[in-house]
Each structure stands twice: as C-alpha cells, then as structure tokens.
Amino acid sequence: MHITKDLVAAAATPMVLGILAQGESYGYAIIKQILELSGGNLEWTEGLLYPLLHRLERLGHVEATWRTAAGERRRKYYSITDQGRAELAEQRRQWAAVIDALKGAWQLTVPALEAQA
Q1: Can you name the residues that pair with 79 across neighbouring β-strands?
Q2: What SS3 class is residue 23?
Q3: Whole-prediction pTM
C-alpha cells in the first residue's frame, strides 16, 4: 500500500515521540520499529528520520547521547524529555479529534458507497 508523503509527514512527530516514550532508542531501531508497527506499510529512510530527530532535539522534545555498547559500534541514542511528553500528549489529543472526524465522515459515505456497489 502506498501512503502519501503528506500523511507520512503529518504522522512523523507523534510516531517518533510515541516510540521514544516507550524508551530510548537509536535511528536504525526507530526505523525498524516503524516498519513493524505499520505492518510494513511505512518504510522510512534515514533521510526522513534524522532531520526530524534533529528538529525534535532543537525544540527540546528529545535529548541525544552518544554511546558504545559492548561489541557494537557507537550510536546516538535518543530519549524523550518532559517537554516531549507534553508535546506527545497534545499531538495525541489532536489526532484523536482528527480520527473521530474521519470516522464520522466515512460513516456517512458507507450507505452511498454500498448503494453504488
């Protein structure tokens, strides 16, 4: 399934903040988790994720630290801040309103679509 660039962009911040609210993570792991959460429908690239992480860091929503785990290469780990948790809560409220509106709008179209079938 192709998901439009606009829809991916709109969901990017709450998606990343939601993942980081579960615990710190690094870029590749975030991309992999998004792919899994979407059932393979969202294939993010580093070119999408890292500018977003840098923006979230500048805004104070996430913090980053470099670490090297035993036997692994050096990675930059990201964690959500208190400000990021507040932003995530606000984004969840906004998305809930959008989802409710979509459900209402689409429910109105079901009889019309069934009549056309």
Answers
A1: 63
A2: coil
A3: 0.87
